[in-house]
Amino acid sequence: MSIIFVLIPLGLALAGVAVWAFFWAADHDQFEDLEAQGASVLDDADRDESKVQ
Amino acid sequence: MSHMSPSISNALLAVEGMHCAACAARIEKALRPINGVERAAVNVATHRLHLTWDNQRVSLPRLLQAVADLGFKPRELDDADAARRQRLEKRTALKRIAVAGIAMMQVMTFAVALYAGAWEGIEAQYADYLRLISMIVTVPVVLYSAAPFFSAAGRDLARRRIGMDLPVSLAILLAFAASVFNALRGSGEVYFDSVTMFVFFLLLGRFVEMQTRHHAGSVTQAMAAALPRSVLRLRDGRTETVTLGALGAGDTVVVPVGAVIPADGSVARGTSRVDESLLTGEATPIACVPGRAVIGGSLNVGAPLHVTLSAVGEKTVLAHIVRLLERAQSERPRIALAADRAAAHFVAWILGAAVFVCAMWLWLEPERAFPATLAMLVVTCPCALSLATPAALAAATARLARSGLLVTRADAIERLARARHAVFDKTGTLTQGAPRIARSHVLGDLSLDRCLTIAAALEDFSEHPLATAFRYGTAELPVPSSVSVERGFGIGGVIDGEHYRIGRLEFVQAIARDKPVYKAPAAAVFLGNGSGLLAAFEMDDALREGSRDAVRALDQLGVAVEIASGDHAETVQRVAEQLGVRTWRARLTPEAKLECIRELNRTRDDVVMVGDGINDAPVLGAASVSIAIGSGSALAQASADLVLTSKSLLAIPAGVAVARQALRIMRQNLAWATVYNLAAVPLAALGWIAPWAAAIGMSLSSILVVLNARRLAARSAEEPPVAEPRTREAIA
Question: Tell me, which fold does domain B420-623 have in CATH?
Fold first, then answer.
């Protein structure tokens, strides 16, 4: 059982990484607009016409 | 506001650090006694303070200081700034939730191990280790995630007042301190799981409430942010780029395709289509030709336009509407005030009861005193009162604005929900207010075309509303000579040497001694010359879009519809029959209309009056709730409780339905809060609820009421999409 003295801190370190990743994402505007990205696929405006054909 | 003295100023401020309805009341209480303050109203839902003050008696910095003294941070509102702050607020809230959520999951696994260990047997060293680890994981939750509760409670204490954050903070601190003490000494209960769970779910509830608040503010913000920053002005045949503020009435601007019209004006050159959805909720673009009035904030979607401006800045329709909306949001509706008072009493009562319960347990069974008191502090939920009521009102206001009904008075939603009787004005309300020729009868030798041309040429000199019907569609008109306009009768003039008259039958018959060949309705217009009557035009006012469906929908909602008009009985009857309205009154003078509404109001308080904002203003004021209909500048002058910006009357029954839903949701929330607290508090006091269960119960209850309020914001299928802030600087 003494393995938990190693494994729990290891798990906590992973959780810490998860928190850090979340903070990074929040600070880099990843949660600003949760709808536009999904809809932008449907928008043809930015399609490069020269590549068609 | 125009009649006020020039030293009166208005300002809209954002107030930071406000958390509950009680804070709002406190700010108002502090400001109102100050000499020179005309009005101070705080909107809990959007955290805005609306101030009206007399510059000669008090200065704005002095007022800002008064607010700052209470522990809040007032800021002058800048919309770009507001949007940035909202983003930051949301981001911070998300991070706090993430920390609390991840920590909660960790602590839960340790808690499960500890509970299982307590049952199955666990070696003391592992139990101590798990407790210590739980403590370490809980520290960031208490220090970082729960920080907003502590700062709010601290502010409350510093001002000697009670808010809902006080019991919350007390519960978190007590539970954490006791758990740390027990974890370090290695015996006794630890509540780290309860603490993390409590904080996580509370933050989640606040987050949902915050989203609703931001969303409600976004309609007003979308409007305020809609205007372009820079504009192409046309001067001496050349275009120059100027800022919005540099524009003046009379300037001509170039509006490229995809750009927003910067201010109110009329089209000088170009034919295009404009999208007025921001103001009217109407998604279909409207065709516009030279001479047509356009409203600032509309999007030009067709072809480039030259627009000559008639009103800029604060005088535009958009600015008026934004002010109306903000006024509505800054007033405190009765229902919210009642909820505030109830919440403050409730929290005070709970704190008192907790002390009493603690004392009782210490006397009876000291070891159970702590968990019971803690559970009691944790389990109580005043959220339905202090969070959900303002959230429901804000969501309903936003929803109504989207469907084309602007709320300009805070109480309007509640009163609209109670409406059981609707009185409509006819001309310009049920009908479009623009008469047209319904049927033409040729009575003499001239062709219909010739008759129409002569009629149009003569009517060109008239100011009468009926005259507009003739102007439409005629290009080249002969110019009549020796024109005479007889008010209320008609017009006479000479065209190509022939004397013609147009107007009432007796007026035309004075020169054409003929008898009418058919029985004409009262509203018909006759044309004649010396040789007899030439034509009769039956006039008709087209029904407004959606009138019939709106009447039917109101009927289904149990709202009895009645028409009160100043028009001829036959015209009113015809409209009533077309719409399926059974009760109507015709030939009412404005005084008689007012009397009619007053009489209805004497016996009931559920009369909604729908009318033209300008002509019917006094009548609108007499009804228990009023809806003004208008377009363009007429909207701005409306003093009604609600303003219909949509062209379709269908927004009215839709609005009644939303208002009723809002009221129903608020009642559900209050009922739930009452039942929940009445059941949970005694159980917790008796020690039958463990602190962790109390944390779950309170959190779920608060999330439930906020989510329930949020249902109002849901978009139904037939509604147009929200007007998103559109392409600014689209000027290429």
Answer: Calcium-transporting ATPase, cytoplasmic domain N (3.40.1110)
